[in-house]
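Bit of a strange request maybe. I'm writing a small parser for structure token strings and I need a real example to test against, not something I typed by hand. Could someone generate the tokens for this chain?
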Amino acid sequence: MISSYVEKPNCIILAISPANQDIATSDAIELAREVDPSGRTFGVITKLDLMDKGTNAFNKEGHTDCTTHDGCL
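Reply from user aminoacidic:
Good idea to test on real output. This should exercise your parser:
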């Protein structure tokens, strides 16, 4: 059902993923990668306060480890 909405070219995709789960395996981000060839996806990482102590949501460049075709989500 969700696919029928996000496949529309005039739809803006809001991919939301909690930081206390593995972002690389997020269903929302995976779906956005499949249907978004033009870069109309905005990524939101929530629950940063619930991350395990000593973990980091960002890599050395200051981006998340999950990227789309042309940049960081």
